[in-house]
Amino acid sequence: MFKRILFIVVVCNALYLNAQIKDPLITKDTLAQQKWVDTMLSSMTLDEKIGQLFMIAAYSNKDKNHEKFIANLIEKYHIGSLIFFQDDPIKQAELTNKYQALSKIPLLIGIDGEWGLNMRLKDTYRFPWNMTLGAINENSLITAFGVQVGKHCKRLGIHMNFAPVVDVNTNPENPIIGNRSFGENYLNVANKSVAFTKGLQSEHVLASAKHFPGHGDTATDSHHTLPTVDFAKERLDSIELVPYKKTFEAGIAGVMVAHLSIPSLEPTTSLPSSLSKNIVTGLLKNELGFQGLIITDALNMKASANFASSEEINLAAILAGNDVLDVPLNIPETVIRFKEALQTGELTEERLDYSVRKILKTKYWAGLNSYKPIETQNLLADLNSFENELLHRKLIEHSITLLKNKEAILPIKELDKKKIAYVKLGDGENDSFISMLRNYDNIDVISSDNLDELISKLKSYNLVIIGYHKSNTNPWKNYKFNNKELVWLYEIARTNKVVLNIFASPYSLLQIKTFENIEGLVVSYQNSELSQEISAQIIFGALEAKGKLPVSINNTFAEGEGLKSTSLKRLAYSIPEEVGLSSKKLNKIDSMANIVIKDQMAPGLQVLVARKGKVVYRKSFGYHTNEKKEKVKNYDIYDVASLTKILATLPLIMELEEQHVFQLETKLGELLPSLKNSNKDTLTVKEILSHTARLKAWIPFYNKTLDSITKKPSEEYYQKKMSSRYNIKVADKLYLRNDYKDSINFIVKTAEQRERNGYKYSDLTFFIFKQYIEDYYKKDLNSLTQNHFYKPLGANRTTYLPLSTLPKSSIVPTEIDDYYRYQLVHGYVHDMGAAMQNGIGGHAGLFSNANDVAKIMQMYLQKGYYGGKRYFLPSTMDKFNHRYFEKQEVRRGLGFDKPQIKENEKATCGCVSDKSFGHSGFTGTYTWADPETEIVYVFLSNRVYPTMENKKLIKSNIRTEIQQYIQEAIINEQY
User: What DSSP string describes 653-705?
Assistant: First the structure.
């Protein structure tokens, strides 16, 4: 009774599916398609019909003999299709054009492009493997992936992509599927297969689901032997076949049949599924109702090739119900065998016509009824457009999975309290990961050949990031930990706080017996450069973790598990198009930078552009000096001169004002008792920060310390060696008398005021505030800025007195001084007044690189918030980024420079908003941020080399011209 009921259910189900599934090869212009197919079929000879069944392997990296071999098969045996393998896209295009010209009936061109054309072709784009994509929640991104692959296929004259892999990978030890599967959840696999199919076929490229009826739970590779799938029909129907049913309903055009032994479906266990009529016709066509093109898996694979002679295998495949023979062997012998079968009735012409008609329908669907040769001009550029990386970044960002986050260790917060080490496990590359980590904080790479020594080295660190890196060459590469690596992992985790990041298959986690001592666990799936870069950004909270585990890890982590991390609003790193900027237009900056160097405006420079919280242009040009011995690198630091005002002193002022220590209307006499009853007594904070307080522009303090005859540092004020009396280090082997600090304050106090009211930019404002702030805190500006801002911001290459913490080789020199210090100023502040304050000035003295400057400017742009910490209230930022004397045509805010009001001023390009703010520096530096466009721009150079009389950079307005280019790079469309 039970068997009878089951039979009825199966029959009803088959009838239902047949009713629901339409012929995916039918086009909208059905009558025209049918007419073309009928016309072609009626004009074909028997040999031409038989030839349509063959899809021959073609290579673009083989010699002329191979080309002649293919050409002969086309001309003599009328083959209907080619599947291209390795390896050159331009050569493939040329060969496709050549072969198409030889063929009476246009050839159907196929490829295995599971992760894009790069699966077979060099110089093309590689997208992530399916296992990585299986971690993505948003299936719209999988559709976008299918669209992009479809565009690439179409551009290269490819009509069918043998993808997606719809195998449900329920066996972690599967040697051939694994990373090629979307995972172990049949619904996830089904939904992502449907999404990819829709995207690919929207570009009029046929998708082909593989490997029917399911290769996901096998322990052997069908390339080498015949794997067995030993499950009951009910199990196959409920798991392996689900993705096929879903893709059939979605209109997938093709199915590739695997070479498997499946006793529950085919009692002859030695008969591969690709040759089984029970499976191909009975299950696929009749029960599941599939009406699209059916292709065998490659018939040169051992799983099928070992069954019988090639010609018998080829015939058996057609008799089983396949339409196209993929990589068949022995074509001449096969043609003879097919003709014999037709004569004996073993194969009927009706059966032959059935498949040929489907092949012709497929060709019409693919547009081959109006075939056009491939245009090879700009082919590589078209295949490698920015859209690829833009999509790739989104796919990676949405896939990376956070599995464990004990005590919210991720994203990493409070950088001022962290000392972080990195340890590598695995044999893959890791440079991109380390480089990106170091954009956020000092990361020490710790290694040793001895475990005890390594553990000892790690004792001084309170966080260890372990990167497990395996080869990203292909999805079949070994991903497993070796025993030594597991021992080291357990011991490092036992003795340290650890974040483990897996740049390999998630199945590698199966080897880890306990995760008890691992505080943070991230799965990045692949060891690509982008995976490393984006994963590092997630670790530091610039991006959020969003992925879900596509496979289960024993009983520890379930399939579908994944924690969402929070964004700390740190700068991220991407490409211009992601934030609505044009790469092509931004590249004009390169030309401007080269002009700077060529015309000796400066020996070298750094330029950075960020938008919407993402750095999208960051380059270094030229050399440290004109002698061209040391190239400028991104981590090198420059003397930023007056940028010190807004990067060091101003944030401390804003902090104190917000804390109500003083107000904008507070008078200097109230701040500094020493100024009481002076000519600066009644000046307000607002006036001096707006540069309307009639202060002198600057005072050359050093002049009074020079010998009146030699014009060199006077022995009355300087010594070559440090002593208790001479301990202000002005430059190498030059020490100023330590009581001169008081003299500077006295000179500022007693300096005459300008007679005219109105705006005049002055350094003295920041001499005054340096004195006040250091008196208030009883600490110098260097320690204050480090502790209040730079360390928590992760601005670890921003500092006063750089020689005390950084190698001299990473510090760009400024001037060959022939008027005061008489030496190359290298590692010491260029500004004479700041030098006389032991290198720590309120107006100058800071050294930094473009990346760190951008962090501080981004913090301002985000109204005082960065890296999970609030430095100021938004209202404080608004208060200081405001013109209080605009009616008097004073463009300045409080400390901040702002766009010009008067026509003769050139503070900016004139193309930024009035809400924007920034500053320039005497040494050839400039930074600007605009809340309206969300752009941060940083320009650092040493234009004062070899002498500050070199004013070419200033006269050329290069800094603001680049700002103009940045504005012009804004594009309307956000990709």
Answer: HHHHHHTTSS-TT-BHHHH-GGGTTSTTTT-BHHHHHTT-S---S---GGGGG
Q: Per-residue pLDDT tens for 940-952?
A: 999 999 999 999 9
Residue 453: both structure tokens together:
């020594």
Residue 696 corresponds to which tokens in the numbers above? 């002198």
Give the residue from 286, 309, 270 showing the smallest Cα distance to 278.
286
How far CA 757 is from CA of 691, 693, 760, in Å, comes to 10, 8, 9
Report the pLDDT value the prediction gives residue 304, as an integer from 0 to 100.
67
Structure confidence by residue, pLDDT tens digits, 53-64: 999 999 999 999
Residue 215 structure tokens: 């290769």
Q: Give the number of other Cβ atoms within 10 Å of residue 724's Cβ.
A: 6
Does position 780 have pLDDT exceeding 90, yes or no? yes
**CA distance linking residue 56 with residue 80, whole number of Å:** 9
Cα-based torsion angle of the residue sequence 648, 653, 654, 655 in order, rounded to the nearest 10 degrees: 90
Q: Which of 143, 159, 86, 144 is nearest to 119 (CA)?
A: 86
Q: How many residues make up the chain in this entry?
A: 975
CA separation, residue 189 to residues 210, 631, 877 (Å): 12, 50, 49
Give the pLDDT confidence of 612-639 residue by residue, as tens digits.
Answer: 999 999 999 999 999 999 999 999 999 9
Neighbour tally for 300: CB within 10 Å = 15
**Phi, psi (5° rounding) for residue 507?**
-65, -20
> Quick check: 5 pLDDT over 50?
no
At 530 the three-state DSSP class reads helix
3-class secondary structure, 628: coil
Secondary structure in 3-state letters for 168-227:
CCCCCCCCCCHHHCCCCCHHHHHHHHHHHHHHHHHCCCEEEEEEECCCCCCCCCCCCCCC
Q: SS in 3 state form for 726-751?
A: EEEEEECCEEEECCHHHHHHHHHHHC
Per-residue pLDDT, 825? 98
Chain-centre distance for alpha carbon 772: 45
